[in-house]
Design a protein that fits this description.
Elements lengths: L1 H13 L1 E3 L7 E12 L14 H12 L6 H5 L19 H6 L1 E2 L5 E2 L1 H11 L7 E3 L13 H6 L9 E9 L2 E12 L3 H19 L3 E15 L8 H5 L8 E4 L14 E4 L14
Parallel strand pairs: 7-8
Antiparallel strand pairs: 1-2, 2-8, 3-4, 5-6, 6-7, 9-10
Helix pairs in contact: 2-7
The protein binds 5,10-methenyl-6,7,8-trihydrofolic acid and the ligand O=c1ccn([C@H]2C[C@H](O)[C@@H](COP(=O)(O)O)O2)c(=O)[nH]1.
Length: 279
């Protein structure tokens, strides 16, 4: 994951300081890309311990179509707490758009079920796209996440908002467009999450995982992460060998995976680095 450390340096060196919605302030660049060959190892950051249970739990939660934090909290995962209402609601975020995109005539589109079906039946397709960017449900930027949810909108606009797959020579590759990316806290999570999703869909479609390509819009470091004990501490560290992902079972569908099916082997990271999250 040397490419991640190089990207931290790129943002520090080439970024412009900008105000942002949260009021924290960021240093940001616009338009970057990382590529991960999933055949050489699983891209889980080794220069700090990443909370993989949180990554896997969040993905299983998205895949189930759930948009309420109650299930995540019951698993001990608290990464979405700050944006939820008192009942745990987040509005129609990823899970809703992926599994139940509402159409004007009252139907619900299960984009992920249709995707798996399309990969199986038309692997040459150039239309293997899933989007969470539903303009009808976007939050109003001047309102709090909770007020948006109470008004029936998403708590946060989708950050990882569109992804596409390609099948070539028996391998499944995935490219994500992430419009806004918190490089220290969110991005390591997002890389692991989409790499895991690619493995799961590949298994369901009798393919091997290929590449994960991560394309960024506004890629930023929050100014309160640019400190000796956070970003600069990580830059002092040397990357270690990547772990491997083992899928221990092949469930009947993409929507039947459980924590026990997903195992990371050989993960030997540097210690975790705590950092404040911008809400
Ligand atoms: N500013 C911001 N950055 C994000 O990455 C982000 C948001 N907001 N809002 C929505 C989700 C929530 N995500 C999050 C939220 C928290 C952590 C976080 O605090 N991670 C810690 C470990 C947390 C734990 O152990 O409970 C970390 O060190 O990675 C990561 C991703 C990603 N998203
Ligand atoms: O999966 C995620 C979700 C969120 N983020 C980050 C990116 C931004 O720092 C904030 C969202 O703020 P906006 O004003 O809506 O852009 O959350 C992430 O990196 N990954």
């Amino acid at each position: 994951m040397q490419v991640y450390l190089d990207l931290l340096r790129d943002v520090i060196t080439n970024g412009r300081d900008r105000l942002d919605r949260t009021g924290v302030g960021t240093r940001s660049v616009f338009g970057r890309q990382l590529r991960f060959d999933l055949t050489v190892g699983f891209p889980l950051l080794t220069t700090k311990r990443l909370y993989f249970k949180g990554v896997a739990g969040e993905l299983l939660w998205f895949l189930s179509g759930d948009t309420n934090v109650n299930w995540l909290q019951a698993q001990g995962i608290h990464i979405w707490d700050e944006w939820a209402t008192e009942t745990g609601a987040l509005g129609p975020i990823y899970g809703a758009q992926w599994r139940a995109w509402p159409t004007p005539d009252g139907r619900l589109i299960d984009q992920l079920a249709e995707l798996v079906d399309a990969i199986r039946t038309r692997p040459y397709s150039r239309r293997l796209v899933v989007t969470a960017w539903n303009p009808a449900d976007l939050p109003r930027e001047e309102l709090s996440p909770q007020d948006n949810v109470r008004a029936g909108r998403m708590a946060l606009a989708p950050c990882h908002c569109l992804f596409q797959f390609q099948v070539a020579e028996g391998r499944l590759s995935c490219q994500l467009y992430q419009r806004s990316a918190d490089l220290f806290l969110g991005v390591p999570f997002n890389i692991a999450s989409y790499a895991l999703l690619t493995h799961l869909i590949a298994q369901q479609c009798d393919l091997e995982p290929g590449e994960f390509i991560h394309t960024f819009g506004d890629l930023h470091l929050y100014l309160n992460h640019l400190t000796p004990d956070i970003v600069y501490a990580q830059l002092e560290r040397t990357p270690r060998p990547l772990p491997r992902l083992i899928l221990k079972r092949r469930p009947p569908t993409l929507f039947d995976y459980d924590f026990e099916d997903i195992e990371i082997q050989g993960y030997d990271p540097h210690p975790a680095i705590r950092a404040p999250i911008a809400v």
